[in-house]
Amino acid sequence: KPLEGVVRYEEFRNNRDIHGNENRDWTFGLNWFLNENYAKFQLNYVLKTLDGARDKRADDQVIAAMQVHF
Predict the structure, then answer these.
(1) How many CB atoms lie within 10 A of CB 16?
(2) How far apart are CA 35 and CA 29, in angstroms?
(3) How many CA atoms lie within 13 A of 40 on its CB side?
(4) How many angstroms separate the CA atoms of 59 and 10, rounded?
(5) Could you tell me which of 69, 62, 66 has the C-alpha nearest to residue 28?
(6) Rg (Cα) of the chain, in Å, rounded?
(7) pLDDT for residue 66
(8) How far lies 31's CA from each of 17, 28, 65, in Å?
(9) How far apart are CA 34 and CA 4, in angstroms?
(10) Contact 49, 24 (CB under 8 A)
(11) DSSP assignment string, 6-66
């Protein structure tokens, strides 16, 4: 299987006593395995939700990485 889908949900509450102090992230990505699992290319999009933020999409991220095993 050279292509693998990835979905992850994260939630972080720094202080439960303060309203609007929550971070929630959804990560959607693809892993592409090259050369029989000796190399991997990853592409992820992180959709961030910050309670109390004016622009909720301002901190979204696109992350690319390559991993090589030798």
Answers:
(1) 8
(2) 20
(3) 12
(4) 15
(5) 62
(6) 16
(7) 95
(8) 39, 10, 10
(9) 12
(10) yes
(11) EEEEEEEES-TTSTT-EEEEEEEEEEEEETTTTEEEEEEEEEEEETT-SSTTTT-EEEEEE
CB 21 within 8 A of CB 51: yes
Q: What is the pLDDT of residues 5-62, one digit of tens each?
A: 999 999 887 766 666 667 888 999 999 998 777 899 999 999 888 776 656 556 889 9
Handedness of CA 20, 6, 60, 64 (dihedral sign): positive
Single-letter residue type at 64: A
Does the global pTM surpass 0.85? no
Sheet with 3-13, strands from edge to edge, namely: 3-13, 22-34, 39-50, 61-68
